[in-house]
Write a structure and sequence with these properties.
The complex is a heterodimer of chains A (about 850) and B (about 350). With about 850 residues, chain A is of the alpha+beta class. Helices cover about 40% and strands about 15% of the residues of chain A. Chain A folds into six domains: about 140 residues, DNA Excision Repair, Uvrb, Chain A; about 130 residues, no CATH class; about 160 residues, Beta Barrel (Barwin-like endoglucanases); about 120 residues, Enzyme I, Chain A, domain 2, CATH 1.10.274.100; about 160 residues, Orthogonal Bundle (Topoisomerase I, Chain A, domain 4), CATH 1.10.132; about 45 residues, no CATH class. The two termini of chain B are about 40 Å apart. The chains are: A alpha+beta (about 850), B alpha+beta (about 350). At the A-B interface, strand 1, helix 4, helix 10, helix 15 and helix 25 of A face helix 1, helix 2, helix 3, helix 13 and helix 14 of B.
Chain lengths: ~850, ~350
């Protein structure tokens, strides 16, 4: 299969009225849709020459039925021309730049010299570059277009300065645009007919100066004379349950236009007074304007009978739900599935558990070759899962696999090499798994399908972090690629094990977490030892069947020994852990220290990924997590209220700290009140006080932290989890067991609520911690009503901030992606734009992949080791 | 080096046709959701300096006047060594307004303005009565001044002759206006720079202040004009040029990430900075900058201001070359990125 570009270029242009009439298959004259029998009226808005939407009818233009006929444009001849709202600015520009009398471009002389210079520049600029890399002509044309507006502006400025036309010395009137569509010549309104005549007599060369290309877009075509009527399938009517027909908004608008058009024509023919004609003309202008854009500034939007504003052409394209962003930049796809996710630590991290129901629904095309002919036949004959659903003949005709065994037998016998079948997905097929919001590329990774019972997708919990998924009801999407090339790309470039390291910072993102970390700690900490039976069980679970020699007395096995079974020979690590312990791994043997999160992700995993490769890392992760879960199950890990109860002695110390804090703060407040407090540089006295108080409160919390830590002890599960980086922090333990401490809004102590105080029970100007958001109670003890409100105030800010932050960062990311999406590293390591202009001469200055950049020393080390041993 | 190592080494290099732009945008954008919105306090210089997400957005927008700008002025060696010398520079640079050292009151009945010098404040700021008088002379040049102890009374002339020879009478409104002008007049210091503080850097003292008037600050004899830094990127571009602006963007984004303890590879930040500056001027990310100047009509239409771009394209008979990513997605073609840029040829074995 070859990648083929079907489209090379698109050209935008305007339709001339003649062109509109030429391509029209029907002139629409009746402001109505269906007759009483429910049949489309000839010359009406759903004329069958425009195509059909009702089943059973045939299009009069092409003879096609509903799905065959692409639809054909019709047109309405407007009795009087009207302005096109969107082009009002362009029309105004031409009118301002040309003389009302001789219609020649004013200020031309200056413009010409400028253009000559500018024309010469881009060519010169481009000359040194490789011709193949850049379409010089396109660049020039683009620059020209860009500058067209600028030029026109200059020309306009020139014409404004002069009061007389340089060509015919005509006294120039002031041309003004009253938005949206009215143009004034001095004080008199210019009628669209006059504007059209004026525009029509501007010469091609003058237009070129203004940036128009008269072959494709003449300005008089911006005055609507013949209005194209889009085919019916662009504006299908819907039939309600009551049998009533409801027309599309565009049809409604077109009905209005035809109605006024007819009325205008009748009045003109009857010789009605000019005033009435102009009013109707104005009304026609309004309808045509709202037909194009119903959100035009300064005019009331056209409304549906129900009072809802109509969705007209501009509204269909615009914005997030518009055609561009909703249907063109993002497309709906087949061969995909979505359901709730749940954890399954038993499957490999590069697998996804797919429910039977979904597996039966999703298919994959398979070419029939001489090597798999028999297999394909079997799939067609198959009674249950997995079976073929469709047969695609070499002439691209799709046949559904028969219901009865006889039919299937016949089909299987007729199957030929060169055809293909669509079969249900089976274990081992590749799929793309995705969770929204897809903030980075690792929100979509390739997983191997594993069909499992149940109705949810199963996911190994070790891969939740790149997806940022949890299992509280999250749903995820699964896609099945339909081409061999796509499948191969997914297998090689998007596989989960290839994404262990994040391209953002070059550190591990798929790594043991939470219980895995706790488990590994319990497995490897000093004193962890297992009986022969336990050790054998644990190793069997991770596919190790050779039981090593016991390393402890009484035939017991140390956890370190068990853990070391998983390490590659090459790992040599020496570092200080979060706990302050020394960790030593030599030649794949853990000799000293207990594994905690930092050791795991930093040195071990990243090193392994680079040195041993993704495949090895995958098996390691699969096994190490299993081992960890086994270890944590044997050891046990739970918390209870008791684990957050500080001893009476400890509470005494906490009280001491808080009362000391109170005394210090009272002291400061006194100094503040009698003005003996020293003002800090660049701060008001009040700010100085607040700053000092905040310092004291946070110091108090730190001190309490120390008390809590030593009181609860290193045996406390909560403290252990915080220390090894499994879950939670010391702060959580402090807040639960000792005190919640200072609440803040905008990084300051609470101030809001009532005049000069937080709550009405306090005196104005209250400054003590208790009055300004300090929570002395712990979650364990429970808060006083005041404190509860303080906590709510602080909590509310956090909530509001998250809401604002997600919206703002989402928009920022959209902008970033839009601005940078065309930047690609070329094969010469330069980073270039879509138009091939160079952004960087060498990507990142060294052409290194950020994913591995920080790991190059690992490679250097490998090299060094080889030399050393050689 | 073994074959295995060689292949490992080449793996470290970026793959040709890798969509580094998208990866960069994701790497900067994705941590945005984890950033805090808190503001930062620059010791004594400025409060509520945005950090985190708001600051990141500010940088990427290439704002001309960021909310709170900070300027770091490194000093010439003779001033940089001692804190007292540096303190002098700081004092000279931070602007002191008339209203800081004097009370200014207007008497609308007699159409005069009384400026009362506050000696205590003046002393604290190192401002003398003479300096105040000089400042008043510059702000109101053609005004008669009466001195009485520490009060200066400004008496604007009752009638003013304009350039055309018309005579205008002094109004109360004009006096009010002048009063405000007098209050805001600078007695000493650089315009736009406030609250300077001396900071001990690596083996030297430097001055940090609020504001970003680099040119103004560079005039001071103690300031090393080659070593002034402000977090206002546009100002860096204006004064030091585009390369400096690029370096400033990198530093600022890096600092934001650092402060939030989020790690982002420097290459991503460099790419953003390069994309914003490659044209020679600092361009923002967004419809008024890079995105608005993309070549493809469809690409621009799909981003923002859909109608505008389509209308302009048809009026000027623009061509859509389909060279960008979005453009090709819109028409349903392979995207010119990554594996979409290469073709695969398989050598098949003919059957015997």
């Amino acid at each position: 299969m070859e990648i083929q570009k079907v489209l090379d270029m698109l050209k935008f242009s305007l339709f001339s009225p003649e062109m509109v009439r030429k391509m029209s298959s029907a002139k629409i004259i009746v402001p109505d849709t269906y007759d009483d029998d429910g049949y489309p009226i000839d010359g009406g808005l759903v004329d069958t020459r425009l195509g059909v939407v009702d089943p059973g009818l045939r299009c009069k233009t092409c003879g096609g039925r509903v799905k065959e006929c692409p639809g054909h444009f019709g047109h309405i001849d407007l009795v009087r021309p009207v302005m096109h709202v969107e082009f009002a600015k362009h029309i105004y520009l031409v009118l301002k730049s040309t003389c009302p009398s001789c219609h020649k471009l004013m200020g031309k002389k200056i413009a010409v010299t400028e253009i000559e210079e500018e024309d010469a520049k881009p060519v010169l600029k481009e000359a040194p570059k490789e011709g193949s890399l850049l379409d010089v002509a396109a660049e020039v044309a683009k620059e020209k277009a860009d500058k067209a507006a600028e030029k026109a502006e200059k020309a306009e400025a020139k014409s404004r300065a002069k009061t007389k036309c340089p060509h015919c010395s005509f006294e120039l009137p002031e041309i003004k645009l009253l938005k949206p569509t009215t143009i004034f010549k001095d004080k008199e309104t210019l009628l669209p007919t006059d504007i059209r005549d004026w525009l029509a007599s501007v010469t091609d060369s003058d237009l070129r100066e203004l940036g128009f290309d008269s072959t494709y877009a003449r300005p008089e075509w911006m005055i609507v004379t013949a209005l194209p009527v889009p085919p019916v399938n662009v504006r299908p009517s819907i039939t309600l349950e009551t049998g009533e027909r409801s027309e599309d908004d565009l049809t409604h608008k077109l009905v209005d236009i035809i109605r006024i058009n007819q009325k205008l024509e009748a009045n003109i023919n009857a010789g009605a007074p000019q005033l009435i004609i102009e009013d109707l003309w104005e009304l026609l202008q309004y309808h045509v304007t709202t037909y194009f854009d119903n959100e035009t500034a300064n005019i009331p939007p056209a409304r549906h009978r129900s009072g809802r504003p109509l969705k007209t052409l501009a509204q269909r394209l615009k914005g997030k739900e518009g055609r561009f962003r909703y249907n063109l930049s993002g497309k709906r796809v087949n061969f995909s599935a979505r359901t709730v996710i749940s954890p399954d630590p038993r499957i490999s991290l590069d697998e996804v558990g797919v429910p039977q129901l979904i597996a039966e629904e999703l298919t994959i095309p398979m070419h029939v070759t001489e090597w798999n002919l028999e297999h394909c036949k079997k799939m067609i004959l198959a009674e249950g899962y997995p079976r073929a659903i469709y047969i695609i003949r070499s002439d691209a005709k799709r046949l559904k696999v028969g219901e009865t065994p006889e039919m299937r037998k016949e089909q299987a016998e007729s199957l030929k090499v060169g055809w293909s079948i669509e079969r249900q997905i089976v274990d081992g097929d590749i799929s793309i798994f995705n969770r929204q919001p897809s903030l980075h590329r690792i929100s979509m990774m390739a997983h191997r399908v594993r069909v499992l019972p149940g109705k949810t997708f199963k996911l190994n919990p070790v891969v939740v972090s790149p997806y940022n998924a949890d299992f509280d009801g999250d749903e995820m999407n699964l896609h099945i690629m339909q081409g061999e090339e796509a499948q191969a790309e997914a297998r090689h470039l998007m596989k989960v094990e290839g994404q262990v390291i994040s391209p953002r910072h070059g550190h591990a993102i798929i790594k043991p977490q939470e219980d895995h970390v706790s488990g590994l700690y319990f497995l490897t900490y000093e004193g962890a030892n297992y009986s022969k039976e336990e050790a054998a069980n644990m190793l069997y679970l991770i596919d190790i069947t050779d039981l090593p020699e016991p390393d402890l007395k009484d035939d017991r096995y140390s956890g370190k020994l068990l853990f070391s079974q998983l390490l590659p020979q090459s790992s040599n690590i020496k570092l200080t852990s979060k706990m302050g312990e020394e960790i030593l791994i030599k030649n794949g043997k853990l000799l000293k220290g207990a594994i905690e999160s930092r050791t795991m992700e930093g040195e071990l995993l990243e090193h392994m990924f680079v040195a041993e490769g993704p495949e090895f890392t995958k098996t390691f992760l699969d096994r190490v997590t299993k081992l960890a879960l086994q270890a944590i199950s044997l050891h046990g890990l739970s918390v209870s209220l008791k684990d957050y109860t500080v001893s009476p002695k400890g509470m005494e110390k906490v009280k001491e700290i808080t009362s000391k804090m109170n005394r210090e703060i009272d002291n400061l407040i006194m100094q503040y009140k009698n003005r003996s407090l020293e003002r800090a540089a660049g701060m008001a006295l009040k700010e100085t006080l607040e700053g000092l108080i905040v310092e004291i409160t946070s110091k108090a919390r730190e001190d309490v932290g120390k008390v809590v830590e030593s009181d609860l002890g290193l045996e406390n599960p909560s403290i252990i989890m915080a220390k090894i980086g499994a879950r939670g922090s010391l702060l959580n333990a402090i807040q639960m067991s000792a005190l919640v401490a200072q609440q803040t809004v905008r990084s300051k102590r609470l101030t809001r609520g009532y005049r000069k105080r937080t709550l009405p029970y306090f005196k104005e100007g209250a400054l003590t911690p208790a009055e300004r958001g300090f929570v002395y109670s712990s979650f364990h003890k429970g808060m006083t009503p005041y404190e509860y409100i303080y906590a709510a105030m602080g909590g509310r800010e956090a909530l509001v901030n998250t809401a604002i932050r997600t919206a703002r960062s989402g928009y920022m990311q959209r902008r970033l992606i839009n601005a940078l999406q065309d930047l690609v590293v070329q094969d010469d390591m330069t980073v270039r734009n879509a138009d091939m202009s160079i952004i960087q001469f060498i990507y990142g200055g060294d052409a290194k992949d950020p994913m591995y950049a920080s790991k190059s020393e690992v490679i250097e080390n490998v090299k060094q080791d080889d030399i050393d041993t050689a | 080096m073994t074959e295995k190592d060689k292949s490992k080494k080449s793996n470290v290099m970026i793959a040709p046709f890798e969509a580094v732009g998208v990866v960069c945008a994701q790497s900067i954008g994705e941590p945005g959701t984890q950033m805090t919105m808190r503001t930062f306090h620059y010791a004594g210089v400025a409060e509520h300096v945005p950090t985190g997400l708001p600051r990141l957005i500010e940088i990427v927008d290439a704002k001309k006047e960021p909310k709170k700008a900070i300027i770091d002025m490194h000093l010439k060696s003779s001033y940089a060594r001692s804190s007292t010398e540096a303190e002098k520079v700081a004092k000279d640079i931070a602007s002191v307004f008339v209203s800081d050292v004097a009370s200014v009151e207007d008497d609308l009945e007699n159409l005069v303005i009384a400026v009362r010098f506050n000696e205590k404040d003046g002393k604290a700021q190192g401002i003398t009565f003479h300096m105040l008088k000089k400042a008043l002379e510059t702000v109101a040049p053609d005004t008669k001044m009466d001195e009485h102890q520490n009060i200066i009374t400004l008496k604007p002339s009752k009638e003013k002759t304009s350039a055309k020879g018309e005579k205008k009478k002094l109004t109360a409104k004009a006096v009010r206006k002048l009063t405000q002008k007098v209050k805001d007049a600078i007695v000493r210091g650089v315009k736009g720079i406030s609250r300077a503080v001396v900071i001990k850097g690596d083996n030297e003292y430097f001055v940090r202040a609020g504001g970003f008037n680099v040119l103004g600050a560079s005039i001071h004899a103690g300031v090393d004009a080659n070593r002034i830094y402000t977090n206002n990127i546009k100002e860096m571009e204006k004064v030091y040029g585009i390369e400096a602006a690029r370096a400033a963007i990198i530093k600022e984004i890096h600092d934001v990430m650092e402060m939030q303890k989020l790690s982002v590879d420097i290459r991503h930040i460099m790419l953003i900075a390069d994309a914003m500056t490659y044209s020679g001027t600092v361009k923002s990310i967004g419809r008024h900058g890079l995105s608005g100047e993309k070549v493809g009509v469809l690409g621009r239409a799909a981003f923002e201001e859909t109608i505008k771009h389509l209308i302009n394209a048809s009026a000027t008979a623009e061509e859509e070359k389909l060279i960008g990513v979005t453009e090709n997605i819109i028409v349903g073609q392979t995207v010119p990125v990554g594996t979409g840029k290469i073709k695969l040829i398989m050598k098949g074995k003919k059957k015997e």
